[in-house]
Amino acid sequence: MNAVNLLDFDLEGLAAFCESLGEKRFRATQLFRWIHQKGASDFEQMSDLAKSLRAKLAGRAEIRGLPVISEHVSADGTVKWLFDVGAGNAVETVFIPEDDRGTLCISSQAGCAVGCRFCSTGHQGFSRNLATGEILAQLWHAEHSLRLRLRTPAGERVITNVVMMGMGEPLQNYSALVPALKVMLDDHGYGLSRRRVTVSTSGVVPMIDRLREDCPVALAVSLHAPTDALRDELVPINRKYPIAELLDACVRYLDAAPRDFITLEYCMLDGVNDGDEHARALLALVRGRLPCKFNLIPFNPFPQSGLRRSPASRVQAFAAILQAGGIVTTVRKTRGDDIDAACGQLAGEVQDRTNARRRMQRAPIRIEPVPPSAPR
Ligand code: SAH
Ligand code: SF4
């Protein structure tokens, strides 16, 4: 019999599992705290659990993390792990320390089926969704191994923020994502507030609506273009869910989180989407309609992309137009690029089961001018 991986459960799920063993619900809370707050992987460590329960768990259940293939530490303190998820697939996770916080960037899939032109994960194709336990194993391992290494005082957390911005499209792995988010938010788990957990999506509109109902954490949307013609080229899912529908979903999302805003991510590609006219068209799209902030990401190049990073002066000029239009705009600092841990460089290992790699080798991006009709 295969042992159940307890990392696959949120607290509700663990309570149901404990009940199936004839145990009271509060036992689940104890067990959950041992796993997520103390990082235990062995039932024998769990000294306040009845011996009879420990005996029941042994054999039936386990706390199964992911094997670490490699770990790299960047000169700026960024840490990148490569985790083995079996059958020749591996996913990456990145820890980004800053003065006032520690952010973990987590993967949700081995590969990605969306196939954005500027993303190295997209170029690798798609193998499979990660299970809840594989998503959480990244956080569980990072938090507890860093605590040991940094000699963090008991009760303090190393990871204060989580962003679902690693490999994969989280909203195309919805059923595994939501229990993982619940564990991050749970006071008996990682106790992160919902503003400190961010789901980043290329724009899976129906799932944005479901997330609003099920677990309205902070939302980041990868916009990357002000017009459908250009976004169709850069982010192919736009052909299914065009910009107007996406922005409407963002407005609805904020109904569940009225004091919040949406972060719009925008990867700056030299000569493709970085002109003044693009910035002005973006303003026309969002102003007075969507409470949002822009996060400009200088493109991180990788072989095969055929794209270039916008010059820093161009990024500044672009940001200035958005700011002058009243939209808070930040430029993402590149971290960990000496270990290929920057946005969009996460490649892991993916046994592609789609024809993504071939599809990506098609004609270069068609750059169409922004229609002058955009209201100013
Ligand atoms: N699939 C989700 C989350 C993972 S990608 C999404 O697309 O939102 C996280 C962010 O990195 C996205 O905004 C993505 O567009 C950006 N990104 C991807 N490739 C990049 C690259 N080569 N350089 C800079 N940013 C990139
Ligand atoms: Fe997938 Fe996001 Fe990369 Fe697009 S940017 S291919 S959605 S991981």
| Biggest sheet strand line-up | 3-4-5-6-9-10-11-12-13-14
Rough outline? globular
The hetero molecules present are:
S-adenosyl-L-homocysteine, iron/sulfur cluster
- CATH class (first level) name of the largest domain: Alpha Beta
What level of helicity do the residues show?
25-40%
Largest sheet: 10 strands, mixed
* Order of SSEs: EHHHEEEEEEHEHEHEHEHHEHEHEH
The CA-CA distance between the termini, in Å, is 65 Å
CATH architecture of the largest domain: Alpha-Beta Barrel
Strand content: 15-25%
Return the average pLDDT rounded to an integer: 92
- Provide the structure class: alpha/beta
CATH level-4 homologous superfamily of the largest domain:
Aldolase class I
Any idea of the CATH topology of the largest domain? Answer: TIM Barrel
Question: What is the total tally of β strands?
Answer: 14
Number of domains: 2
Spans of at least 5 consecutive residues with low confidence = none
Please work out how many helical segments DSSP would assign.
12
Radius of gyration: 21 Å
Explain this structure:
The protein is 34% helix and 19% strand. The chain is α/β, with parallel strands linked by helices and 376 residues long. Helix 1 packs across helix 2 and helix 10 (276-286) runs parallel beside helix 11. The strands form three sheets. Strands 3-4-5-6-9-10-11-12-13-14 form a ten-stranded mixed β-sheet. The mean pLDDT is 92. It is globular. The chain folds into two domains: 4-62, Orthogonal Bundle (DNA polymerase, domain 1); 68-359, Aldolase class I (TIM Barrel, Alpha-Beta Barrel), CATH 3.20.20.70. It is built from twelve helices and 14 strands. The structure holds S-adenosyl-L-homocysteine and iron/sulfur cluster. S-adenosyl-L-homocysteine is lined by residues 112, 118-119, 165, 169, 200-202, 222, 265, 267, 297, 299-300, 343-344.
